[in-house]
Amino acid sequence: MKRWFAKSLNRKLSLLILFAVVLPLLTMGTVSYRIATSVTEDKAKEAGMNTLRQMTDKLDFVIQDVENMSIFLIGQRDVQAYLGKEESDINLYSQLIGTLWNLSYSKKYIANITIAPKNSNPVLYTTTITNSGMVPLLQQYETTNKSAPKWWSPLYDIQTSDGLRKVISLVRPIRDFSLFKNLGTLSFSLDQSEIEHYLTEAGWETSGFVVLVDANNRIIAGGDSKWLMKDMSDVFPNLHGLTETSGVSSVLQGMHPYTVLYNGLPRVGWKLIGFIPTEIYQKQNGFVLTVTAVTILIALLLAMALVIYFLRWVTNPLMILTKYLKDLNPDEMIPTFEVKSVDEVGLLVHSYNKLSDRISRLKDQVQLNEAMKKEADIMALQAQINPHFLYNTLSSIHWIALMNKDRQIAEMVGALSDFLRFSLNKGEEYCVVQQEVSHARNYAYIQAIRFPDQFDIEFFIDPGMTQNVMLKLLLQPLIENSLIHGIQKKKTKGHIYVHGELREHDMKFVVEDTGIGMDEAKLRDIHGQLASANQKLGIRSEADAERKKVVTSYGLVNVHRRLLLHYGAGSGLVLESTLGTGTRITFIIPREMGE
């Protein structure tokens, strides 16, 4: 692993930068998670306390409303008159029942209003009560009831015509305004189910609950119905310290921890206590943890992508240079690269381009010098032959043959003279297409005389290309190759076809024969020789000298090298052959007009 990192600058920089990015991100994520969990818990407690305050306000409004109505009824003249008369007045009775009914009709939380006279007059009810638990409570709390101007009873049951109901009552004594003697008792009964409704409709936390306890710390609403009228210390023995008007505590009930919020109603000494399961915080904290982890993961992936992108952007030129310098072939053209920056990497690429350009120019100069050396060798070879002497000798033989009336010898000598004259041609490298074709025809004529009835040759040359310039001595070696390696090895007569096609920007030549062809192995071998010539582009080395010993188609290789030397890599020979069918050789050169 250490060696794997050591071999790449990109890997080392990536690891270093990623480590520098990951560590702060993880630290920030941990701190953010802790802050978020603390804020989540504080928000939940704050929201719960606000809900408790809203419940408290509703209950306080109900209590205030009941106390105000009780004061109104105590001071009402008809009530004073009814309780002060010893004899019953049916009209006043009906009128007071209507008044009490009107007061309680619009108040769902009022289960009953009762006025109990001390005299013999009938008790006033808004609801028909067949059995009430109030009498035992009045006896139980007689001392408290008589000494206080008002008294809130514990939760108790009443049996009405509508069924059994649980109520909490406000009890006030009714006294005479003048004599201040006790005339009777006023009782406002609150429906416990309506108070319960206030607690459940407030939208308390899921899985949590709220209970309402009275001044004696007994549960009068909320929670489980089995808890009603039980002491809080019996239901929640681990709950302590709710001595303030409002606050926050905690308790473990069974195996479930709860956060406890409480808020008091000082007017009556009641207290609302809300229980929020701690697991709600844990679920919320789990969500916060998931969000934090996903956020950090996305940030890490983004950071990794940016780091990889910028590192590649910086190191990619170096990687490309390293790759090409590592696999550089001295015989191929050295590529250059666009300089896209002015920093140190850009200066390095610029220096590489300068070096590449210098090497290319030196290579071209070496190739030019080698080509000039070859041209000089050819010219030296031509200079060794005395053209005039050779032409005059051939001309003499031509006339002697004519004088002896041997026309075939005369034509053969004439064709040989033209053939040599074109081949030497004072060392000229180029000629027009018409001269190249005539030279090929002379060669074919001489060979046809030497090897009668062995082959036929046909030329199909586009008339429009006859005056175009081309490198000379290209067609004759290809015809010679077809004759020697294809036709002469065949038992029957063969055919050679020479095509010349003029195209828009170039000229295409094809030499095709119906000889014996080549098998796959031989064809592959010749393709390898041509490829080797293509790589060297005519430059000799010791390796070339060794390869020359196994060259089997020197004529083809020589033509191929000359094409590459004068026309470039796209002008080499293309060889196709099928065993028993024949061979097809093609080359394409640029279209150039003669002067």
Could you explain the architecture of this structure?
This protein is α+β, with helices and mostly antiparallel strands. Helices cover 53% and strands 21% of the residues. It has 17 helices and 20 strands. The chain has helices at 2-6, 9-74, 77-84, 90-105, 134-140, 142-147, 192-200, 232-235, 278-326, 344-384, 387-403, 407-424, 433-450, 475-487, 520-536, 542-548, 554-567, and strands spanning 110-117, 124-125, 129-132, 151-152, 156-160, 163-175, 182-191, 209-213, 219-222, 246-253, 256-265, 270-277, 430-432, 455-461, 468-471, 494-502, 506-513, 574-578, 582-590, 592-593. The strands form four sheets. Strands 1, 2, 3, 4, 5, 6 and 7 form a seven-stranded antiparallel sheet that branches. Strands 9-8-12-11-10 form a five-stranded antiparallel sheet. A hairpin with a 6-residue loop joins strand 1 and strand 2. Helix 9 runs parallel beside helix 10. The longest helix has 66 residues, at 9-74. The protein starts with a helix and ends with a strand.
